[in-house]
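Chapter summary example.
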Amino acid sequence: MVCRMFRLETEVDKARRDLLRTRLRETNTAASPVLRALRGTPDERDVPLHVWAVNDRDDALAGGLVGYTWASWLHVTYLWVDERHRGRGMGARLLSKAERIAARDRGCRAARLETWDFQAPRFYEKQGYEVACAVPDYPPGITEYLLTKRLR
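The structure predicted for these 152 residues follows.
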């Protein structure tokens, strides 16, 4: 019997990270017909989607949405509105614009995002999102929500 010894290392190593990502992607692609079908298509890659609310007078940023589309989904990464402009529908307009672009121009059928309990879960529910998952104590004392929405 051959005994193999391995050591565990904890340093940040970008080359190993990239190799690990490549190998995991290959394993996942081999195991999933859905991921295999995505290979070589435009949907295989993340495509950035940004929507900005910019003041006409001074080009100041009043709000914005940063996300991307992948595999017929819109992923909303960040949505922020300057405190001076909150409560006026700007967040809903930013989100609606991103959803329209994702659905109409990129063929997305659904959207997803994460938010914390003190941020905006009720706002997203008003926009048609449904809670798919709640993770209590992430971070401690806070609940994180994953919300999804079917796009038209």
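To summarize the output: Helices lie at 14-31, 33-38, 90-106, 121-126.
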